[in-house]
Amino acid sequence: MEHPGRIVVVSADIGAGHDRAADELAQRLRAQGFAVDRLNLLHLLPRPVHRAVRETYRRVLHRLPWSYHALFRLTGSSPTAVRAIRALLRPFRRRLRRRIPPDTRAVVSTYPFANQLLGPLRQHGRLRVPVITYVTDFVVHPTWLAPGVDVYCAVPHAETHQDCAADVTVVQPLVSRAFARPGPEDRRRARQRFGLPADGVLALVVAGSWGAGEVPATVAEVAAAGVHPVVVCGHNAALRHRLRGAGRHVLGWVDDMPALMRAVDVLVENAGGLTCQEALAAGLPVVTYRPIAGHGRANAAILARAGLSRWAGTPQQLGPVLAAVIGTSPVVPSRDDPSRDPAGLVAEAARRAPPAGPAGTRRPLLDPVGDAVAVLAALLQSTGGLR
């Protein structure tokens, strides 16, 4: 049977949050019969530049968090800074347009800098299909915003950054439905599966796919509060090696997070990203502690204001906050909440749209040095990438 249309979902492998949201959206759209192409924006770059971009961003988060926070604030308060990013990325517009097949009916972005390419293409008539953005953070930072984007989708309680205005449609989080469903394992069996203590209170400590932030201090202070930490280090092998020992339970990348969340009593997180949304969907209490710079701190403030998490500001506050939330359920949107499945919104737009048509055949004027300078300058200011 012929599919109802093709949808291109654009993300980037900066952290895991952008890709995981894109994967979930693609899965839901395929279930509705659409053909879905997944496009990594950074694959438009030569491979060495791609690696350099990811490594530079990772090192800034780990070693120069103050500079990342300064860039986040600058781009949040200066429209000129965001326009400069858009101008730096302009040479990549044609290259991206050529990756969108003629039968495409909609393009969805889960990565902010993709909007700075897709929006102008749409605005100037070079892309005829709707451009829809799913914001992976609780803060709609100005780097997500670009002229030409048709719809911005954000999770309940998301806020625009400072004085920035955006027409935002509230949607359900792009979180696997496995988190909200009872699993085949009860808590006891889930703990046994992951080699965790059968008794006692367990806190799941996460820091994104790169293990960013003050994780060793967090682990020590959670343990000092009388709660046993279970640490997920993602792909950070050095962090995992450093934290091993002393009776700790330290894991690397975990594929079955729904089962692990059923095994613990509370989530301690520092970015307000996808794992936080997964915990809320699973009914697991969330504590924000030592949030990372930039989007981590912005998300922490929004989560606390909305009552979705508790923010422990000091080591002295951590113990009482953990004691207060353990055994409680977080505030989550009710079933009759007006938010919608983003896949349904995208599917509706795609069914109404004409196909994108062929891209132009002119070759872009690019060179490897231009690639590196433009993207490194822009992606250092990326937001919301951590799982």
Can you walk me through this structure?
The chain is of the alpha/beta class and 387 residues long. The chain folds into 2 domains: 6-172 and 339-379, Rossmann fold; 177-325, 3-Layer(aba) Sandwich (Rossmann fold), CATH 3.40.50.2000. The protein is built from 15 helices and 14 strands. The protein has a 6-stranded parallel sheet with strand order 2-1-3-4-6-8, with helices on both faces. Strands 11-10-9-12-13-14 form a 6-stranded parallel sheet, with helices on both faces.
Q: Can you tag this structure with a few keywords?
A:
six-stranded parallel β-sheet; 387 residues; Rossmann fold; alpha/beta; 15 helices; 14 strands
Rg? 21 Å
Mean pLDDT: 87
The level of helicity is 40-55%
What is the string of SSEs from the N terminus onward?
EHEHHHHEHEEEEEHEHEHEHEHEHEHHH
User: What distance lies between the first and last C-alpha atoms, to the nearest angstrom?
Assistant: 36 Å
Q: Identify the CATH class of the largest domain.
A: Alpha Beta
**How much of the polypeptide forms β-strand, as a percent range?**
5-15%
Largest sheet: 6 strands, parallel
What form results from the Cα inertia axes? globular
Instruction: Please state the second-level CATH architecture of the largest domain.
Output: 3-Layer(aba) Sandwich
In short:
By secondary structure, the protein is of the alpha/beta class. Helices cover 41% and strands 15% of the residues. This is UDP-N-acetylglucosamine:LPS N-acetylglucosamine transferase.
